[in-house]
Q: What sequence folds into this?
C-alpha cells in the first residue's frame, strides 16, 4: 500500500468518500517539493517557499498552536502543508475541534503522497475543506463562535493564495462582527424583547402571517426605501415610482414618503425600542400594510393602523407562541430593518428589486435624510457653545468611519456596524444568484450584485396603476384561519401552559440552589443530586425560554478563572445557573401575566 493509499484509507471526515475521489482525480502539484529538515523530519516548499521550518517543522507547529491559545472550541488551520500543525493542534487540545482549509487540491494530494499523515487524517475531530468556497469555509464555524474560534494561517499559503485568503479573512470578520452585534444586542434588548412580545399578544391574535403575502406581486418591480441621506434625492420621484413599482418602506422612511404625497404598499417595522417609534410621530393614518415581528415596540401598533402581518420570531418565547397558531413565515434578519425589508420584497416575488436610501454609510458625511427625527432631536441639544455641526461631527467620527468604494465608483465613509449589512446583502445574492437587484443611490456603499441604476430608467416604465395617496384604502388579504377570537383563545391557552411550565422550572431551580448550599456546608457530601436536578431541567421545554436571558451567566462561567478547586468551581457554576434560571423565570412570569391581562381586553 502506498503512502497515498494509506492516508486516504485513514481519512474519516464525514465527506471522506468525496475527498478520496477528488484527491485521486487530481494531478500532483509540480511546485510542491519535500526536503529533509535539520532534525531529519520532512519539510516542504511550495512554489519555492517553505511551508514549514527548515530546521524543526514539528517544534514550529507546536509553537504556532500554543499561540492560538487554549480552551477554544474550534481551531481553523489555513493550509494543510504536511500536516504538522494539525497534529500539534490535536495534541495541544484533547477536546476542541479542528477545521483544515486547504486552497489547493493538487498541493493536498502531493502532501498525502509524501508523508504519513494518518494521525490527523484518522481523527474524527478534524474536518477538511479542500478548495472550498471561502464563504462556505467560514460558515462551517458560524455556530461555534460563542465557544471561541482561533485561526492559524500558513504564511507561505497566504502569500501564494492571497486572494483566496483575503476573501476567507473577510468572511471570518463578517461572522465575528455579526456574532458580536448579536451578542451585544441580546445583552441590551433581551428583556425588552420579552416585555414587548408579552404586551403584543392581542396584536398577534389580530394579525395575519406574512406567509399569506408570498408571491403576491410576482414579477412586479419593487423599490425598497431606506432613510439614508440619498432618500432626499429620491423623494421627488416617489409618487411617480408608486405608479410603476411596489413600494416597501422601512419605518424611518414612512413619514417623509407620506409627506411627499405617497403611501407605501408596505412598511416594515421590527425595532423593539421606544425611541425608534418616534420616527412615526405625526404620520397620518394610512392604508400601508404593516410588516412586523412580535417583539416590536407596542406603541407602533397604536400609531400605524394598517393591516398587520407578522413574520416568525427569532426568539424562543415568540416561537413557542407561534406554534399555537399557523406558521407566520420567515424573513431574513441581517441585523437591520433594511435587510428585513429587502427580504420581504423577495417574499412578495418582486423582480427586479431596487433599493434607495439604504446607503450603509455616510454620503457627503451625512447620517440620515434631511428633517428626520434624530436630526431634529440633535438640534434640540445644541447651543452657542456646542453648535449642531459639532454634534454631527462627533456622532459621525465616534463611529470610527473609514472609506470604502461607493456605488458610483467614488469613495464613501462607512463603519464596522454598517459594513456587516453590506456583507449580508452580498451573501444573500451569492446564495441566490438569480435575484435581480439594483441600487438607485449613487453615493452609498457599493454592494456587489446591486449595480447602479438611474431613477429615470424606472420612470420610463409603463405605469400599471394610479398613484397611491396617503388616504387610499388598501385591499386586505383574506385570512383562511380562525377568527381573531379563536386565535386569542389559542394564545391564551399557550401562555397559560407556558406559565405552568415556568413555575415547574422555577421549583426545580430552587431545589438546585438549596442543594448547592447543602454541598457547600458538607464537603464530604456527594453531588449526585445536582446531576439529577440537571436532568430534570433538561427535560423541561421551558428551559430554552428561560435560557434566552441567561447569556451573561453562561459567558461569565466560560470566562471564569480556573483558580478555584474543581469542586468549588462546579458548585459556583451550578449556583450561578440555578440563580440565573430563577431570575429569568421570574421576569418571564411577570411579563406574561401582564400580557394575559391585556389580552382579556380586546378592541
A:
Amino acid at each position: 500500500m502506498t503512502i497515498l493509499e494509506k492516508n486516504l484509507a485513514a481519512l474519516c471526515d464525514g465527506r471522506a468518500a468525496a475527498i478520496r475521489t477528488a484527491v485521486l482525480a487530481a494531478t500532483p502539484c509540480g511546485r510542491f517539493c519535500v526536503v529533509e529538515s535539520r532534525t531529519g523530519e520532512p519539510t516542504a516548499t511550495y512554489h519555492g517557499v517553505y511551508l514549514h521550518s527548515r530546521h524543526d517543522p514539528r517544534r514550529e507547529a507546536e509553537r504556532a498552536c500554543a499561540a492560538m491559545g487554549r480552551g477554544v472550541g474550534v481551531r481553523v488551520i489555513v493550509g494543510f502543508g504536511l500536516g504538522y500543525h494539525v497534529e500539534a493542534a490535536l495534541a495541544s487540545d484533547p477536546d476542541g475541534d479542528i477545521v483544515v482549509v486547504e486552497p489547493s487540491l493538487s498541493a493536498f494530494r502531493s502532501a498525502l503522497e509524501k508523508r504519513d499523515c494518518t494521525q490527523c487524517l484518522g481523527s474524527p475531530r478534524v474536518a477538511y475543506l479542500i478548495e472550498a468556497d471561502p464563504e462556505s469555509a467560514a460558515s462551517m464555524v458560524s455556530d461555534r463562535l460563542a465557544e471561541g474560534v482561533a485561526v492559524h494561517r500558513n504564511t507561505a499559503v497566504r502569500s501564494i493564495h492571497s486572494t483566496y485568503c483575503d476573501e476567507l479573512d473577510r468572511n471570518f470578520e463578517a461572522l465575528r462582527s455579526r456574532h458580536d452585534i448579536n451578542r451585544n444586542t441580546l445583552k441590551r434588548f433581551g428583556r425588552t424583547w420579552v416585555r414587548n412580545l408579552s404586551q403584543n399578544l392581542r396584536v398577534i391574535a389580530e394579525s395575519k402571517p406574512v406567509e399569506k403575502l408570498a408571491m403576491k406581486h410576482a414579477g412586479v418591480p419593487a423599490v425598497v426605501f431606506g432613510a439614508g441621506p440619498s432618500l432626499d434625492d429620491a423623494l421627488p420621484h416617489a409618487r411617480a415610482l408608486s405608479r410603476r413599482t411596489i413600494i416597501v418602506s422601512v419605518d424611518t422612511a414612512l413619514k417623509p414618503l407620506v409627506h411627499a404625497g405617497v403611501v407605501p404598499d408596505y412598511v416594515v417595522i421590527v425595532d423593539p425600542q421606544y425611541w425608534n417609534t418616534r420616527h412615526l410621530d405625526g404620520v397620518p393614518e394610512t392604508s400601508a400594510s404593516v410588516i412586523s415581528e412580535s417583539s416590536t415596540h407596542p406603541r407602533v401598533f397604536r400609531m400605524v393602523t394598517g393591516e398587520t402581518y407578522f413574520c416568525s420570531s427569532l426568539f424562543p418565547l415568540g416561537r413557542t407562541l407561534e406554534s399555537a397558531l399557523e406558521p407566520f413565515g420567515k424573513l431574513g434578519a441581517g441585523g437591520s430593518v433594511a435587510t428585513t425589508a429587502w427580504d420581504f420584497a423577495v417574499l412578495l416575488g418582486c423582480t427586479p428589486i431596487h433599493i434607495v436610501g439604504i446607503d450603509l454609510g455616510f454620503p457627503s458625511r451625512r447620517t440620515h435624510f434631511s428633517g428626520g427625527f434624530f436630526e431634529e432631536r440633535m438640534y434640540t441639544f445644541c447651543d452657542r457653545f456646542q453648535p449642531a455641526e459639532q454634534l454631527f461631527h462627533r456622532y459621525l467620527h465616534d463611529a470610527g468611519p473609514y472609506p470604502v468604494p461607493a456605488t458610483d465608483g467614488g469613495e464613501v465613509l462607512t463603519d464596522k456596524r454598517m459594513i456587516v449589512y453590506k456583507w449580508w446583502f452580498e451573501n444573500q445574492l451569492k446564495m441566490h444568484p438569480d435575484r435581480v437587484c439594483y441600487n438607485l443611490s449613487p453615493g452609498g456603499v457599493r454592494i456587489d450584485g446591486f449595480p447602479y441604476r438611474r431613477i429615470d430608467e424606472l420612470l420610463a416604465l409603463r405605469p400599471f396603476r394610479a398613484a397611491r395617496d396617503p388616504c387610499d384604502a388598501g385591499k386586505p388579504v383574506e385570512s383562511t384561519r380562525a377568527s381573531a377570537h379563536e386565535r386569542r383563545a389559542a394564545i391564551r391557552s399557550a401562555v397559560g401552559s407556558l406559565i405552568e411550565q415556568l413555575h415547574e422550572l422555577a421549583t426545580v431551580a430552587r431545589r438546585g440552589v438549596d442543594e448547592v448550599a447543602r454541598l457547600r456546608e458538607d464537603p464530604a457530601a456527594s453531588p449526585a443530586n445536582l446531576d439529577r436536578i440537571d436532568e430534570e431541567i433538561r427535560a423541561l421545554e421551558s428551559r430554552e425560554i428561560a435560557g434566552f436571558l441567561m447569556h451573561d451567566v453562561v459567558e461569565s462561567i466560560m470566562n471564569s478563572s480556573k483558580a478555584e478547586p474543581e469542586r468549588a468551581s462546579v458548585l459556583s457554576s451550578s449556583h450561578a445557573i440555578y440563580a440565573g434560571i430563577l431570575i429569568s423565570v421570574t421576569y418571564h412570569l411577570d411579563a406574561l401575566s401582564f400580557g394575559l391581562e391585556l389580552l382579556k381586553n380586546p378592541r
